[in-house]
UniProtKB/TrEMBL annotation:
Signal peptide: none annotated. Residues 14-53 form the F-box domain. Transmembrane segments: none annotated. The lineage of its organism: Eukaryota, Viridiplantae, Streptophyta, Embryophyta, Tracheophyta. Gene3D superfamilies: 1.20.1280.50. This is F-box domain-containing protein. Pfam families: F-box-like (PF12937).
Length: 303
């Protein structure tokens, strides 16, 4: 039988890596590692899937180590900086990043809607009946409203917690409150919106690790959909919504913004993945438990 020839063997490593990194589709790179044993070893030894993950998810650059949980036992694990052969660590990393890339692809093709937990709003018009908690369910009669502002350029922020410490977020939808004023209905929306994701530090302060572009808010759309430029890895599970500017002027002459419902689309990665934030650096340990599959949905809970 004629011996097969791998063209990678005839290329300098740097050249071969540059060629393979043009395959920015996760599925293509995973298929590449299945061509032959040589190709698989080359992909694993050079951490190609890890490099692609870092390109797609810059937030992973703060990962200080990987913990793989075996047989569902917390005390039976491998740590990147601990024991284990170099090959075993490379193969483990290959599986982990292949799994992350698979969920990245799924988040684009079939994102799941999941709910949030409320954390805080800097101002509320009526604390008991118009709180941020009222934005967690799609009930039209409930909503959150800001306090009145004399300046139409005033801004408000809402802070939520996702029901997973690590997830892939692709889209955020906001239903503005529809108010009756001067014999007609109008949306109490913001002029524009911006999203930040991150974690809370030991003092309870929000630490941002991702900031989206600013999106204009359509003043005549019931549920504006804000698709992020690309899937975002939310590490820490916190979402901050910045409502920039106000368009609704009430009978008291002040400007208000009101939100009826907020929900997120993407994929929750727990319990396959989990994270532990390391203070004060903000780096994190990434836990990987391949025996479990991520949840397909989540139930909102009050924080």
């Amino acid at each position: 039988m004629k011996k097969r020839v791998n063209f990678l063997e005839y290329l300098e490593t740097d050249v071969a890596l540059k060629i393979l990194m043009f395959l920015n589709n996760p599925a293509d790179l995973i298929r590449t590692s299945a061509v032959s044993r040589f190709w698989r070893n080359f992909v694993i030894a050079n951490g190609i899937l890890k490099q692609l993950c870092l390109t797609k998810f810059p937030q992973l650059s703060k990962n200080s180590g990987i913990v793989e949980l075996k047989d569902k036992e917390m005390d039976n694990l491998y740590v990147e900086s601990g024991s284990g052969t170099e090959l075993a660590i490379l193969e483990r990393d290959h599986k982990l990043y292949a799994s992350l890339l698979k969920y990245l692809f799924n988040s684009k093709e079939s994102p799941t809607e999941f709910m949030l937990s409320d954390i805080s709003a800097p101002s509320t018009d009526h604390d008991l009946i118009e709180s941020i908690y009222d934005t967690l369910t799609p009930v039209r009669l409930t909503h959150w409203s800001s306090k009145g502002h004399s300046d139409h350029n005033a801004s408000e922020t809402l802070l939520y917690k996702l029901n997973a410490s690590i997830s892939i977020v692709t889209e955020i939808n906001i239903r503005p409150y529809e108010a009756f004023h001067r014999a007609k209905l109008g949306f109490c929306s913001a002029k524009s919106v911006r999203f930040r994701m991150g974690h809370q530090d030991s003092q309870g302060n929000f630490v941002c690790t991702y900031t989206s572009p600013e999106f204009p808010m359509n003043q005549f759309e019931r549920i504006p959909q804000f698709k992020l430029p690309g899937p975002v890895l939310c590490i820490g599970g916190f979402l901050q919504i910045e409502l920039l500017g106000m368009v609704h002027r009430a009978g008291d002459g002040l400007f208000y913004v009101g939100i009826n419902y907020v929900y997120v689309k993407g994929i929750l990665l727990q319990p396959t993945f989990n994270i532990v934030i390391l203070e004060p650096s903000g780096e994190f340990l990434l836990y990987y438990q391949p025996e479990y599959q991520p949840r397909t949905n989540a139930v909102a809970k009050k924080a």
